Structures are given as C-alpha cells and as structure tokens.
Amino acid sequence: MRDQEVRIPSINKRIVGLDELRGIAIIVVLIGHGRGLIPDSPKLIAGIGHYGVILFFFISGFIIAKILLSEREKYSRSEISKYEYFSTFYIRRIFRILPLFFLSLLISAILYPETSQYFKQSVVFIQNYYWANTDKIMMRTDVTWSLAVEEHMYIVFPALFFFLRRNQAIVALACIIVAGFLFLSGVFPHGPFNHHKFFVTHMNMQYIALGALLAFGNLGRYLAVTLMVMWLIFCGLMQLKGIKVGAHGIGGQVIDSVSFFVVMLISLGYLRGISKLGFLRYIGLRCYGIYIIHFFVSVLVIEYLGRSVEFFVVYIVVSLLLAEISLRYFEEPIQNHRAIYEKNKLLSKELFKLMGIGLFGVTCLIVLG
Does 13 have pLDDT greater than 70? Predict the structure, then answer.
C-alpha cells in the first residue's frame, strides 16, 4: 500500500513501526527465497524465509485482533449492527487478499499448465494441507501456504471475539497457542503429512494467536509472554535430550521469540526510531504484492538469466517494480470499490452469496474428483 494514496486501516496509522517491521519481514523472505540465485550462498541464510513469515503472522494477528476488538466495541455501543461487524471485516479481507491471489493462480496456470489441476485446493485455501500430504501445489504459488493459515484464522477470529467475553476470548487464544505448540513439538500427532508438515495451519496458528493476545492489554501481553517463555524453556529441555523441535530447532524458536518481543515493543510504542527508515516503510506498504510476485520472478531469472549476485539484485528490483505496478494499476483500483459493498447491504449479501456458491461448487469438485 502506498503511504498517502492507499487507504490504510486507521488502527495501523496510530502504531508507528508496524509497516517498517513488515518491510523487514519481506526482506528476510526475499533473501531466503532468492538464495538459489547466489552461487555458493552461505548456509546461514538457508530457510530464513520462514522467519519472515512468522514475523508476518505475529503482526497480522495483532492488527486483526485490534481491528476486531474496535469493531466489537462499536457494536456494544450500538454504532454498528451484527451484520456490519462481520460483513465489513470480510469485505475488507476479500478486496485486500483475493484479487492478487487469484491473479497469481491464473498466471501459474498459464505458465505451468501441468499443475493447474491443483487450482481447486488453492481456491478454497486448503493448499497448505494438500501440499503437506501430496507434495503437489500450483507451481510458484508455494508461498500461499501462509495465506491459507491466515484465512483459516480469519474464519475463527471474528466469531471468537464477537460471541465470547473478553476474558473468554483470551482463554480461547491461549488454548490455540498451547495446542499449536504441542502439535509443533510432536506431543500431539501432527497428522499424515510427510512432505511440508511445518506449513499446516495447526502448526502455525499459535503465532497468529500470540500476536492477537497483544491486542488485549496487559493481561493479554502477560499471558503471551508467559506462554512464549514457557515454550522456549520446553524447547531448551528437548534440545538437551537431543530432540529437535520445529523445522529449525531451538535456534529457530529463539529467533521467532525475538520477532514476537519486537512486535510487542512496537505495539507498546517503543522502537519508534524505526519509523525514520523510510525505505522500510515503502517496502512494507507493498509487502503483499512482493510476497505473491517474488517467487515467480526468482525462477524466471534463474531460467532466462542464470545465477549470480548481479542476477539476485535483478530479482529484487524486478519484484519491487512489479509489486509497485500491481499496487497502482491492479490492487488499488479494485480496493477503491470496496466502500460500495461496505455501505450497501444488498450488494454485500450478493457478493457473499456468489462466493458461497463458488466455494460450494469447488468443494464438490474436490470431493467428487
């Protein structure tokens, strides 16, 4: 999103540093996923893209919870109806996420028709589970596993925050966090996933829930910190027994915990100096487009140019350029129509009805074939 032209949720405007943090997260992802472009790249950067995604999860959980809690307060004051609470949230998600996501699926189907048959799983956001189970996904849409995780939580959070009292919602989030960590550690069986098991929702939901807890004031923060510290202690004990927890072991869990504490500090108004790094804000406001686009760019650069440090720079520059073009001429024009559906109940109902029919149809195709 652009600094001035694109409408940014008001809650995000008041929290200095979050866009810059998004910028850091997408840079980490770009480096991790572009490693193959650099001959003899350091092993140190292998897999670091995952840390950027986890940072995104923390940020997303916090922002979404903050927005939903604010909307819930409006409902309590009779400023909005129950329908407006839910419809506004989902319309915003639809217009923000789906256009570029669907475009990426279309591009993948055109460039790699041999994997277009997995379009169905991606449309209903079960591609992370299907990929983990079969090792099959639409080419160059691998990164959308994290979108699936977030979408699954977007189904849960609005109802959770609306129907439960504040303390009950905190307890529910704590249960999600504990369950997620137990799945990740192997205490709970992770299921029949032999390929990309660390990308399934029940092994990542804890990160979004931890971010969400930060929106619940002191009680939420204390609980989140307690759970994170207990998790690190558990991982340390497992490491002493020679048991690796997660994809990257204790080291990876420490890095993830540092990301969590940085998000918490920024949510409290600390680390405001990061806002002086304008280039991070610029990149952060375009992070979604970069995230979706960069995986296509990396393979095309390798295929048509080759591997070198110079071509790695080309990959970065082209990803940023295409993300800018996507924002200006595709994403933003679509988002400009969002308010029409937010204000018109009849139109929003027709939109939800159309999406419901589509999802039902695709689900039937998956089940039948």
Answer: no
